[in-house]
Amino acid sequence: MLPIESTFDLSEEEYKRVQAHAENLFSGWTQTGENDVEAVESALIRMYARERHPAPYIVWCDSPWQLHLTPAEFGSVTDESRFDNACAPLNDPITNAFNRALSKAQLTWPPTWQARVIQRVGPQKVAQWREACARARLLMTAKMQMDRQAEADVDSTNLVWGRWAADLLPVYATPALALASDDWAQELLAQLADLYTLRTGAFAFVFRHCAVFICRNPTVVKIDANARLHSDDGPSLQFADGYSMYCWAGVNIDPELVLNPTSLTVDRIESEPNIELRRVMIEKYGTARYIEDSGALVVAEDDCGVLLRKEIPGDEPIVIVKVVNSTAEPDGTYKTYFLRVPPYIAEPREAVAWTFGLDSDDYAPKLQT
After folding, report:
1. pLDDT tens profile 153-206
2. I need a labelling partner for 197 at 20 to 30 A (CA). Which of 29, 228, 295, 305 fits?
3. Which residue in 213, 339, 240 sits closest to 287, CA to CA?
4. b/e map of 126-151 (b: 16 or more CB within 10 Å)?
5. Could you tell me if 67 and 159 are in contact, meaning their C-beta atoms sit under 8 angstroms apart?
């Protein structure tokens, strides 16, 4: 039996232990470096035994792409005939076993236990973690789908995500794992611990009845302040075999845009049919520079500046007010600024006023700076 009191009516110290356990889970999606091979393999063997499967062959792969290719090739390099039939796909045993284990816990935990766990570890943190992982999964899935087009003969691998799964099952297990003691039902605790190790101990899996293929941790993971895959000086995600993904603010981009940014031209930007990628290109090129180089229309001029407008097919126009600082620089020059404003703006004074949160009638600076 699991003790309800120590699980949900937490002392301050117990709360801190549960929260710390959850924080490790939330930060783990960007983990790089060596996997704990022994822990993962031991947990796998025990899980297969509980599922009444023989101990599987375990094959580690250096990247998701290698994980995609290896299962299809596994049977052809194995002499044992049993792999022809017994090595069929196994449907996500981690999730299935987690659900069964937590169902047992539900018999002794209160009806609202799931919501109370989320409340304890922080709903906003849970939501941010799940959103970040969901975006990353979509990017990796899109990348692999594009790569598969050149490998039409390779079957799908039924990939099961590890730490990028970001499901709530390991979150629900945090009280039991963080507060483990002799009072807990040890068999259930051991099962939850193994499943937690599997969900957080590798990047991804492919399960077969006779074998498990495991993707090692990436060697590089770079994100921006919004927890989106992002890098302006190399791959945002890379694995040991060199398989990599280049992203800008959570958008897959051509590696050339990072490795050779001078190759980006106005013509290339304007010939890009994908709206999201075109926005990234404009951002990398520089919005103000793009406005000037692409021949934007001068909408209006007044004593506050020049209003420029560039129509973007399939997207909202870019409208920028060009202003000159009235205070000279130390070298005697006057710095020019380009400020983006909403498309409905029609006059430079209205645009500058908007940047201060004012209407044009209320904007009358005594000294422009």
Report:
1. 444 568 899 999 998 888 888 877 877 665 557 788 888 899 999 999 999 999
2. 228
3. 339
4. beebbebbebbbebbeebbeeeeeee
5. yes
